[in-house]
Write a structure and sequence with these properties.
single chain, 704 residues, alpha/beta, FAD/NAD(P)-binding domain, 5 domains, seven-stranded mixed beta sheet, 37 strands, 20% helix, globular
Length: 704
């Protein structure tokens, strides 16, 4: 499968001819894109098993692709590294990390070098939407600022977002794609001479002497900041189910990193657990990457994300199973199928309702957890520290951007800069932008059957206003709040189609009776040009919920190069024209359950909660029932939290067990975090470089 997993066509992203280099995987020559991460190069070459666990020999792959877990560890040029954070290099020798890595026979002598120190008024940890937005405000005021981000390019999760953003046009660039917004913010930040940017750099710790240790492109530096802004974002929550250790179980961010940043098709058939906005958007991104989306499961009775996101998937032929949970990921060396079941009012699986679906990837999208350790470290050191974005509160990127602006102005005020008081209206707007989806109203269709007009299929209160701002005749208005209200059309339509093109939810169509009242034309937005259409095709038209209406002819296709989408015009009957929203692209057979249901073998207490040390839920539950409420004691007895990830994943899963056992939060003693929450070679603190050759009493040892 060499290079067979590269995405060669994408409806939104520009796919360039790759600049390929050679590397070696277990002595086999392979090719990689120059500068891409080892994990992406391996998956592009069809490698899903990166190592075998030292305790039980089971296969391991990637999960987060964000440096927050250690499932993707490999040996690169003789040194264990996280493959998702380590760029592949020409002729690099990469080997599977089976068991524990062996130390060299002789320990190299480290040459102690001078460590460069720096002073800035503000240190921003994280170059995502919140951190960049804060940096813009600081840059405008001439405040010396350093932005540190562990990725090679700025933008954070914006780099992974190919869809159009919701929110406010004025305050968060609603209607533009995330990738475009990330570029705009980064370009603005770069325009300020007072703002310095360190990419491919990792903040290691905030020390008690109020200095911050940073690994900048492999070289250790110390930064003395006046104020720290934690904009480091969030890490994905893991989930307990049988088979959760199998390669092919990904976090949503990892999946989006592979398909949207690295253009690697990491799956053929995808199943998603969790239907908040993250899971719903990931499903849409999968279709854009040419991946079949078998289905989505959600334990709640309704989707937690925006209805327009869920409707968009249903209309394309992707089923969503609410009141369902995942029982198991099934397979030997990697995911081969997933078994789900309905749940009762107590969220317990109902026997006899199990269904098994063939898939090679199970995507976990069950929520995020703030990366707050830098805030705690700074507070202990006595530094002034602010938080913003997901590091402060989990919300949409549009909210993160606006709150980043507010936080930037707060920091300026703390530095005694002359800034105006932040208006109360800003805080009110910030609350709106982070608001959860509101009420769903009944859809009302226009009664007229003449002329041309938009039909709006957005019937839930969400923070979004592009359609009301783009209409040249000001004929689309939001009922109630100017951001959160539900859009409605009243006025005069010119048929320009701007509202159809800009709508982030693809929830506006244009119905035109002018040419022939008996055969009106319906124009719909289409962003999946990799699923090819041509004039004369016949498609299965559907309504807002994805219900089949009729087979309709495609009479026109217009490429919108600026917005990177197509406007597809169908010929319909007057009775159904206003109800047509889209058409199916994925056949029902893709989502059909397997004939044979795989009933998982094992109990809930057999499920792993600490993947690094292979600690089960049963081991933890037994201690909790014996009165052990101290996470440090649980670690000492079971080793849960002692593995390479430093409890970043198992802490939340163990706390779930406490909740199940009825233990109040105030009776739980939290675990003590490691002095360094990020793995790093000790020689770095002597001023060495990660990439240099260090001479010792034995042979030269390359350190990557």
């Amino acid at each position: 499968m060499s290079q067979g997993n590269r995405i060669e066509e994408h409806p939104i992203l520009h796919v360039e001819e790759p600049d390929l280099i050679t590397f070696y995987w277990n002595r086999n020559a392979m090719t990689a894109r120059r500068g891409e991460m080892i994990s992406s190069a391996l998956i592009a070459n069809g490698i899903s098993v990166f190592s075998r666990h030292h305790r039980d020999g089971t296969a391991q792959g990637i999960f987060c692709a964000n440096g927050q877990c250690s499932k993707c560890m490999v040996i690169a040029n003789g040194v264990p590294v996280k493959s998702c954070m380590t760029p592949v290099r020409e002729n690099m020798i990469v080997e599977t990390a089976d068991g524990l890595p062996q130390l060299p026979d002789s320990i190299p002598q480290v040459q102690v070098n001078d460590i460069e120190e720096h002073r800035y008024e503000v240190l921003i940890i994280g170059g995502g939407p919140a951190g960049l937005s804060a940096a813009v405000e600081l840059g405008r005021l001439g405040i010396s600022t350093l932005i540190v981000d562990d990725k090679p390019i700025l933008g954070g999760k914006l780099v992974l977002q190919t869809h159009k953003f919701f929110g406010s046009v004025e305050d968060s660039h609603a209607g533009a794609r995330g990738i475009e917004i990330g570029e705009m913010l980064a370009d603005t930040v770069r325009s300020f001479d007072c703002v310095e940017i360190w990419t491919s750099s990792t903040v290691l710790f905030v020390f008690k002497d109020k200095r911050v240790g940073i690994l900048k492109e492999g070289v250790y530096h110390l930064v003395d900041p006046g104020i720290i802004l934690n904009a480091a974002g969030a890490r994905e929550k893991f989930l307990r189910f049988l088979g959760n250790t199998l390669p092919g179980v990904y976090g949503a961010g990892a999946f989006q990193t592979l398909v949207n940043r690295d253009l690697v098709r990491s799956a053929e058939r995808l199943f998603i657990v969790g239907v908040g906005n993250v899971g719903l958007i990931a499903g849409y991104h999968a279709l854009q990457a040419g991946i079949d989306v078998v289905g989505l499961a959600e334990a709640m009775a309704q989707c937690g994300g925006y209805k327009v996101h869920a409707d968009k998937l249903k209309r394309l032929g992707v089923p969503i199973y609410t009141r369902h949970t995942v029982l198991s990921a099934n397979g030997n060396e990697r995911v081969e199928s997933v078994t789900i079941a309905e749940v009762d009012a107590s969220f317990q699986p109902i026997a006899g309702t199990e269904k098994t679906f063939a898939c090679d990837t199970l995507l976990i999208a069950v929520g995020l957890e703030s990366i707050d350790e830098f805030t705690e470290e700074a507070e202990r050191a006595g530094l002034t520290v602010f938080s913003t974005g997901d590091a402060q509160e989990i919300a949409e990127a549009s909210s993160a951007m606006f709150n980043g602006r507010i936080t930037g102005l707060k920091i300026a005020a703390a530095l005694d800069r002359a800034v105006e008081d932040i208006p109360d209206a800003w805080y009110e707007k910030a609350d709106i932008l982070k608001a959860h989806p509101g009420a769903i109203v009944e859809q009302v269709f226009p009664a007229e059957r003449t002329g041309v007009f938009p039909v709006i299929h957005c019937i839930q209160e969400i923070p979004c206003n592009p359609c009301s701002t783009v209409c040249p005749t000001h004929s689309i208005h939001l009922t109630g709040d100017p951001i959160m209200g539900i859009p409605e059309y009243q006025g005069r339509c010119t048929g320009c189609g701007k509202c159809v093109t800009i709508c982030p939810g693809l929830a506006i169509t244009l119905v035109d009776y002018r040419q022939n009242p008996d055969e009106p034309l319906v124009t719909i937005p289409y962003e999946l040009s990799n699923h090819h259409l041509v004039t004369g095709d016949r498609v299965q038209a559907v309504n807002i919920n994805g219900d089949f209406l009729a087979e309709l002819d495609v009479v026109k296709i217009r490429d919108q190069k600026k917005s990177r989408m197509q406007l597809v015009t169908l010929k319909a009957s007057p009775d159904i024209a206003p109800r047509v929203v889209s058409f199916r692209i994925q056949p029902e057979s893709v989502s059909a359950p397997m004939n044979k249901t795989v009933i998982p073998v094992g109990k809930q207490d057999d499920i792993m909660v600490c993947l690094c040390e292979r600690v089960t839920a049963g081991e933890v539950r037994e201690l909790v029932r014996k009165g052990v409420h101290d996470l440090n004691m649980i670690k000492a007895i079971t080793r849960a939290g002692m593995g390479p990830c430093g409890a970043k994943n198992c802490d939340n899963l163990i706390r779930q067990i406490f909740r199940q056992e009825g233990i109040p939060v105030d009776q739980i003693t939290p675990g003590t975090r490691r002095p360094l929450f990020v793995e790093v070679p000790l020689g770095i603190f002597a001023g060495g470089s990660e990439g240099e050759i260090v001479k010792g009493s034995g042979e030269e040892v390359p350190r990557e």
